[in-house]
Amino acid sequence: MEEFILTADRVSVEFPGVKALDEVDFEIKAGEIWALVGANGAGKSTFVKVLSGICRSYAGKIRCNGQKVSLRSPADAARLGIHIVYQEVDEAILPDFTVAENLLMGDLALGKKKLYHRKSIVEDAAKILSELHLELVPEHRGRELSLSEKQLLLIAKAVHQECRLLILDEPTAALSKAETERLFQVIRFLAREKGSAVIFISHRIPEIMEICGKCTVMRDGRITAEFEITPETKQDEIICAMFGHSSVYANGRNAEGGFSKKTGKPPEGCPFFEVSNLSDSRNKFHNISFHVEAGEVVGLAGLTGAGKTEICKALFGAGKVESGEIYMGGKRITIRNSVEAVQKGIALVPEQRRSEGIFPTMETAFNLGVAALPAFCHFGFWQKKKMEKYMDAYIREIGIKCSSAKQEIRFLSGGNQQKAVIGKWMVAKSNLYILDEPMQGVDIGAKQELFALIRELAGEGRAVIYASSDVSELLAVTNRIYVLNGGVVTGNFMTNDVNEQELMHQILEVSHDG
Amino acid sequence: MDKERGNKIGLFCLKQATVIVTLLAVLFFSVYTGGSFASYGNVVNILRSMSITTILAIAFTVTLACDGFDMSTCTLASCAGYVFMACYLWYGLPLWLSIVICIVFTMTAYLLTMFLILICKIPDMLATCALMFIHQGIGQWFTGGGGISAGMNLPDGTIPKRVTFEAAFAKIGQTPWIILIMLLCIVVAHIFLQHTKLGAFLYAIGSNKKAAELSGISVAKYRFLAGMVTAVFIGIGAVVVCSRNTAAQLGGCDNYLMTALAAVFVGRSVGGKEKPFILGTTLGAALIVILENGLILCSVPYYVLPAVKGFVLASALAAVYIKKKE
After folding, report:
1. A333: which strand partners?
2. Interface test with A, best of B15, B191, B195, B214 (most A CBs within 10 A)
3. Cβ distance of B204 and A359 shorter than 8 Å
4. Dihedral (C-alpha) A62, A65, A66, A67: value to the nearest 10 degrees?
5. What distance in Å separates the CA atoms of residue B20 and residue B277, rounded to the nearest whole number?
6. CB contact under 8 A, B196 and A350
7. Which residue in B has a C-alpha nearest to residue A339's C-alpha?
8. N or C end of chain B, less CB within 10 A?
9. Looking at CA atoms only, how far is residue B276 from chain A in angstroms?
10. B195: chain A residues, CB-CB within 8 Å
11. What is the reported pLDDT for A16?
12. Could you check whether A5-93+145-243 and A248-345+431-508 share the same CATH topology?
């Protein structure tokens, strides 16, 4: 196989209001296994989308073997031999077709195989599978395969289509140890024997240390570090590069100054909001217990899949709860749906702002007022003018940048949209704010303002739950932090008593000396 | 600077395309027909023709405002028409009572629509597709397979209680009353959607169902209420159609579906609003009727007109979907 080098030269991707990728330089050669790490929203998936031809509107150059190429569709990528195996393997496998058919689907579709001849397909598939030392049975149906088998099938499919760069997007997230080991064997075989380049995306640092030769760390859309992994490499080096030592937000916090923490002060009576032994029916979280005082920002720290979103939704009545108790002001409450949650003064700022948080085609004023709409109604008639006037003042107060209260919210930047989503609940005078990854797609300047807004809420005596995977955010804004891992609370700190690295170790579940 | 201004004008033209096309159509027909299009008589004619379409399109607009879709609007109106005429002619009930019963019937029948959509969770389009057949079949079972008009016996041979129409009945379908009824419906529906809490919540649901739910709006409850409002307008539409035809014809309203749909979607794009609203719907209905009326005056054969309606609907839909790239 000929030599293969893929180079990205100052690749940038911009979404309205956010720079998802900021002049990224990257180079990978045949036979290398390269790790790509970074916190959520660091730009990994955007970068991978560019390489696989899904994100068409990128700026900058991509070269393949020195020649400039244009990656504007997945077909472009496939022609260059770039293949990607996503986390959601089910979407790429036809459940009613056999392993052999799935494997050779490309040949069938492209007419390389003119006739559908069952026996020859099975034979061809068996040959490909044995070459890769995969123990998949060609006659099995797609739906009968386990998750890891599906992954291996997709890798085999990519290899069969002359894969020169294989991208694996968090392949091990749901695999057992044995399955991971088997996957690694295949990856190593690919790199060594077949000369493929591999980009391996993962949150699990020990795995990266085990399989990857080089590591690129991304943060806020930029590459912040790049190093070779040797036996001497420490996990801490990678973690530091992922989250940076001097957090940009720490300054904001000091400048803020005004917020005092309730350290050492015993809680008076019962806590404002308390959750005890909460479990859901789908095993996404288990025996969760925590409490929030009025005037306090409590962090729920954890990676994607740790159960943050599920807990947030469950507390808002938008998810199923199997067992456990919720107390508010000392009284036990049940929250069966989101209407009840709002009536009890609970507010949710969902993780998916675009699809769940905003009303894109409605005015900013409407977005702010929707949860408190009855207050602007007189005998069922909506006093639109009165509301717009009130919101005009409110928009200035919380600093939403828009041309007027009547501007439709979809034209605002991510940060300003998020201010409106939080502001909606402030207008409704909610008491408990559940914020789920509220800084996603928000630029740094707006982040500072949002932090100030959240601290202000706490200052007014409201309670805030702040769920995030971003350590610097958590340290900047919270009073206390609960760490979640696999749906279980695994740690519990005062924010003042913990530093970035300790918290990161907790979240990533790695030991101190790595 | 000049380019920016050009862009602004272009954007304005795009947003106001419906208004501009309507005005151009009026201008063209007025000139081409040498004044007969713009005559007082013809303007009244146009208003009368658009009344029924507008009323049924209003029903559709309310459903669409909260992201619903009701293909069975017009088959239900036909059904309601049978009930109205049966009450009035067969059982000889007073006109006002017949109207009330007709509207109550429509609301009751709409419970089934809401049951299928909100409780069985069938997608709107499919549920109302099934309902079209249900309405047609049950309606005809009720009338014995035919229409209901004056002087006809009941299916079992009984002689109807009322043989001739009262003047008040006929008036509903004549000018100026039919136009006034339309105007009243427009005003009421406009206030309902734009200036009430319920209307605001419907638009919230229409804009983002999930966000509405997570803002503490009970989506099912408000969709149900929207359905009931829709039903009232369907009932009114049925009464007007029957009076206009002086009979409940077999499937008498069914043909209005596509025209009403076109009116709503044309209206949706008026002023670049991208959400259904009553004044837009009215303009949409006006545009379609103006085109129909004008083309007939230009001696285009009437059997070609569906194609015109089809093109208008297609362009309106194109305006809706062409922007939905991302």
Report:
1. A326
2. B214
3. yes
4. -70
5. 18
6. no
7. B216
8. C
9. 11
10. 381-382, 384
11. 65
12. yes
Residue A163 has pLDDT above 90, yes or no: no
The amino acid at residue B252 is G
- The predicted pLDDT at position B88 comes to 94
Question: Is the confidence at residue A253, as pLDDT, over 50?
Answer: no
CB atoms within 10 A of CB A146: 11
Residue type present at position A202: S
Q: What angle (nearest 5°) sits at the alpha carbon of residue A336, between those of residues B68 and A324?
A: 145
The H or E element spanning position A492 is: strand A488-494
pLDDT tens digits, one per residue of B113-131? 999 999 999 999 999 999 9
Residue found by looking up tokens 């979809």 in the block: A410
Please spell the DSSP secondary structure of A330-384, one letter per residue: TEEE---SHHHHHHTTEEEE-S-IIIII--TTSBHHHHHHGGGGGGGEETTEE-H
DSSP 3-state of A23: strand
Sheet holding A463-468, edge to edge: A346-349, A432-436, A463-468, A297-301, A480-485, A488-494
- The two tokens of residue A384 are 């639109």
pLDDT (tens digit, 9 = 90+) per residue, A214-252?
899 888 788 888 888 888 877 777 777 776 644 444 433
Contact A233, A52 (CB under 8 A): no
Helices (H), ranges, A162-234:
177-193, 205-211
CATH number attached to the domain at A248-345+431-508: 3.40.50.300
Q: Output the CATH code of domain A5-93+145-243.
A: 3.40.50.300
Q: Cα dist. B225→B120, B123, B149 in Å? A: 17, 18, 33
B48-94 pLDDT, tens per residue? Answer: 999 999 999 999 999 999 999 999 999 999 999 999 999 999 999 99
CA distance B52 to B236: 9
pLDDT of residue A17: 61
- A319-348 residues touching B, CB cutoff 8 A: 337-339, 341-343, 348
Instruction: Write out the H or E segment, with its range, that includes residue A394.
Output: helix A384-398
Question: Which residue from B194, B196, B211 is facing A358, i.e. has the nearest CB?
Answer: B211
Q: Is A230 on the interface with B (CB under 8 A)?
A: no
Q: For residues B51 and B49, give the distance between their C-alpha atoms in angstroms, rounded to a whole number.
A: 6
Domain definitions of chain A by residue range: 5-93+145-243, 248-345+431-508, 358-429
pLDDT digits (tens, 9 = 90+) for B267-323: 988 877 788 999 999 999 999 999 999 999 888 898 998 898 888 888 888 877 776
Structure confidence by residue, pLDDT tens digits, B137-193: 999 999 988 889 888 888 888 889 988 888 999 999 888 999 999 999 999 999 999
Distance from CA of B159 to the nearest CA of A (A): 48
